[in-house]
């Protein structure tokens, strides 16, 4: 028996939250078993995507009650389809926002890449696959340029990508009008390689007798991949670090500049994917397509838990934010309401998400002290 007079040490963090039998003969009780549920609830409350998950349940329940057909298989296929391309972009934009930056050229990039693919395939006679490869290289080059300008000049990414947005918009309109004498490129269905590329980017899957667009699968896979990246990889830690404390991150060896450039390239790559899905599904593209969508991507990411200041958020939350968009937009249609109500809903959801996310962030900060 020890006679040192020291008191037993406190249970470790791993032991806290589960009942630990008292040592034989001590007569001292183990930790309260109720600690485990409390710790679980605490971990859930500080998750950035919690607000969007609650919002999605509320929106789903509301439109399921007021809109006939919303919960049918066909109805679900409709609002999932509406959410998919928005969700692909929202996930990429969320990564960039967690890294502390914005990309206002994301919406117009979907049109730029689709136009390049369409013009090379329909006007220059290329096969669709090489045309897709060239448009991807273009997107990655613009993304890299955006990132390089941001890290080299120190200017806000809002300003840099606003300039890119205007430049791409002008190119889209000017080049398309010069080549086609209109603001539209069409005729993809008759091009070489359209069938195989269409199966990959714009086909449908039969699930329980209902046709689901393959873009939904792209959305889910990319959301899962981005979630794994943030939670399980060194690069994911770098994203949070450069968004939350870039100076400290640089001091401990995080490649801040390279990380930001890769994130801008990721957003541009997602724009290429959405542009490819659209041109192969609808077989035509307008030069002014995608303008204004960049704000919807940012709003979906904010609803999903991302902060405008960076360093906080989640990819799965952004995907859920896009799902809320799709359910609301199609729910209004199923309810036979005027579509103008969607803008009111969007504003209310944005304000509510900012308030809820700010509350959760403060709770998370207090838990780390």
What does this structure look like?
- By secondary structure, this protein is mainly alpha-helical.
- It has 14 helices and four strands.
- It has a two-stranded antiparallel ribbon. The chain has a two-stranded antiparallel sheet with strand order 2-3.
- Strand 2 and strand 3 form a beta hairpin.
- Helix 12 packs across helix 13 and helix 12 packs across helix 14.
- The longest helix is centred in the last third of the chain and has 28 residues.
- The protein starts with 34 loop residues before the first helix and ends with a helix.
- 42% of the residues are buried.
Topology:
Elements: H1 35-45, H2 50-66, H3 73-98, H4 106-122, H5 128-153, H6 157-180, E1 184-186, H7 194-201, E2 204-207, E3 210-213, H8 214-232, H9 234-244, H10 246-251, H11 256-282, E4 284-286, H12 293-303, H13 315-334, H14 341-368
Antiparallel strand pairs: 1-4, 2-3
Task: Briefly characterize the structure.
With 369 residues, this protein is mainly alpha-helical. The protein has helices at residues 35-45, 50-66, 73-98, 106-122, 128-153, 157-180, 194-201, 214-232, 234-244, 246-251, 256-282, 293-303, 315-334, 341-368, and strands at residues 184-186, 204-207, 210-213, 284-286. The radius of gyration is 24 Å and the shape is globular.
């Amino acid at each position: 028996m020890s006679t040192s007079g020291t008191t037993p040490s406190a249970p470790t963090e791993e032991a806290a939250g589960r009942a630990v039998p008292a040592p034989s003969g001590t007569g001292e009780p183990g930790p309260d078993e109720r600690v485990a549920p409390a710790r679980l609830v605490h971990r859930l409350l500080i998750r950035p995507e919690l607000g969007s998950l609650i919002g999605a349940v509320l929106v789903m329940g509301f439109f399921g009650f007021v809109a006939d057909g919303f919960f049918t298989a066909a109805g679900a296929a409709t609002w999932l389809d509406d959410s998919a391309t928005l969700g692909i972009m929202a996930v990429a934009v969320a990564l960039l926002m967690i890294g502390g930056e914005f990309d206002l050229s994301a919406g117009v990039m979907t049109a730029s890449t689709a136009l390049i693919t369409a013009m090379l395939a329909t006007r220059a006679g290329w096969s669709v696959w090489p045309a897709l490869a060239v448009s991807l290289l273009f997107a990655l080059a613009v993304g890299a340029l955006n990132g390089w300008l941001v890290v080299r000049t120190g200017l806000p990414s809002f300003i840099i990508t606003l300039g890119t947005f205007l430049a791409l918009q002008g190119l889209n309109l000017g080049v398309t009008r010069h080549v086609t004498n209109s603001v539209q490129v069409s005729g993809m269905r008759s091009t070489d390689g359209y069938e195989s590329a269409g199966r990959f980017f714009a086909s449908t899957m039969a699930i329980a007798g209902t046709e689901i667009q393959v873009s939904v699968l792209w959305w889910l896979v990319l959301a899962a991949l981005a979630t794994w990246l943030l939670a399980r990889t060194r690069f994911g830690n770098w994203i949070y670090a450069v968004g939350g404390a870039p100076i400290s991150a640089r001091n401990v060896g995080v490649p801040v500049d390279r990380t930001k450039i890769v994130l801008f390239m990721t957003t541009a790559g997602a724009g290429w994917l959405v542009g490819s899905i659209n041109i192969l599904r609808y077989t035509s593209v307008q030069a002014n397509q995608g303008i204004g969508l960049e704000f919807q991507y940012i709003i979906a990411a904010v609803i999903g838990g991302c902060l405008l200041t960076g360093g906080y958020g989640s990819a799965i939350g952004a995907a859920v934010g896009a799902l809320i968009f799709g359910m609301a937009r199609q729910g209004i249609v199923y309810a036979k309401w005027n579509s103008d109500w969607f803008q009111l809903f969007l504003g209310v959801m944005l304000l509510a998400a900012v308030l809820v996310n700010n509350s959760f962030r403060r709770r998370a900060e207090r838990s780390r002290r």
